[in-house]
Amino acid sequence: MMTFDKHLKKMLKATLIGAAIAALAVPASAETTLRGASMFDGQHAFTKTLVKFGDLVTKYYHGDVKFDLRLNSELGVEKDYVTYLNQGIAIDYTILAPSNMARFAPSIPLMDMPFLFRDQAQWNRVLSSNVFAPLEKELYKKADILIVGYAGGGTRNIISNRKVSNLKELAGLKMRVMGAPIQAQVFSAIGAIPSAIAYNEVYNAIQTGVVSGLENEASSIQDLKFYEVAPYLAKTEHTITVRPIVFSGKTFRKLPPKLQAAIMKAGKEAGEYGRKLETHEDAVKLKQMADAGELKVSEFTDRDKLLEMVKPVQDKYAASIGATALLEAIRSK
Ligand code: MAV
């Protein structure tokens, strides 16, 4: 079977030939503008990572390329971005939670499954290996979306409008989860009542009592002020985020090969930059919100039990997508 790397090289070669033909028609100075999207303002780690990505591409590509990055959900939320990337319209690159791509590639949310990583060290080892290559391949094939790097590194906790610090208090908590079925399965298994709600509707859903909370990382809780409606944070620390920097396959194949190469190199480096940044900022931002009295932070006393309850759900999901060996490979990293 052809590896994803080989597949990509073959694709680059094919575009090289295509580009040679196209070069006859398009003047060498033709400018390319790539449009990106972020749900956040300029202070958020995702936005900074996407800015870094643009800067690095400009540095590595000695041609005319411009970046038009739209912030603050001007172009919608991640579930919109994934459709745009798939169709090759509206945007060319962004950062996406794997769970928001479930519709196109059911195996991709494995990257994002709660309790996948024991700690930061394992998370680091996985992201600096090529363990995720089969999932990248499936995403490219089924969604026409290319992963060019990995950002993330935030730790997700449960936040709610009432105190939740153990399993008993968690029982029956109505909470918003991301759209992938595995997310709802995991939170059901630990006693909550999950519902998939679009990210831009969560604040209102809590305000109006549709749900009592959600799970999220510090940078986003702070950026979107979720603490205003859900001021109790329980340190369930259930996910260390994996957030791919993604590029539309349809756009990518139209670009000059040298620009494609610059994008791949910049994506990898911007991802490393984003991971360092968010890993560092996570605790800092959590503390800022706690010190400001915006969040009341408590330990989750039954945290060890959560993994036991979730493991059979993880195993079942992995088996259903033919990824049992992959899950084992991640666990043994
Ligand atoms: C956070 O803002 C990010 O992890 C983002 O990638 C997710 O889509 C979002 O949470 C969410 O929960 O939908």
Describe this structure in words.
With 333 residues, the protein is α/β, with parallel strands linked by helices. It has a single domain, classed as 3-Layer(aba) Sandwich (D-Maltodextrin-Binding Protein, domain 2), CATH 3.40.190.170. The chain has 13 helices and nine strands. It has helices at 4-25, 45-60, 78-87, 120-127, 133-143, 167-170, 181-189, 202-207, 218-223, 249-252, 257-291, 303-320, 324-331; strands at residues 32-37, 65-70, 93-95, 145-160, 174-177, 193-196, 213-217, 232-248, 296-299. Strands 1, 2, 3, 4, 5, 6, 7, 8 and 9 form a nine-stranded mixed β-sheet that branches. Strand 5, helix 7 (181-189) and strand 6 (193-196) form a beta-alpha-beta unit. The radius of gyration is 20 Å and the shape is globular. The structure holds alpha-D-mannopyranuronic acid. Residues 78, 97, 100, 178, 199, 216-217, 220, 241, 243 line the site of alpha-D-mannopyranuronic acid.
Number of helices: 13
Which bin fits the share of residues in helices?
Answer: 40-55%
The backbone outline, from C-alpha atoms, is globular
Count of distinct strands: 9
User: Overall pLDDT, averaged?
Assistant: 93
CATH superfamily caption: Bacterial extracellular solute-binding protein, family 7
Architecture per CATH nomenclature, i.e. the level-2 architecture: 3-Layer(aba) Sandwich
How many domain units? 1
Each distinct ligand: alpha-D-mannopyranuronic acid
Radius of gyration equals 20 Å
Strand content: 15-25%
Amino- and carboxy-terminal Cα gap: 24 Å
CATH topology group? D-Maltodextrin-Binding Protein, domain 2
- The assigned structural class equals alpha/beta
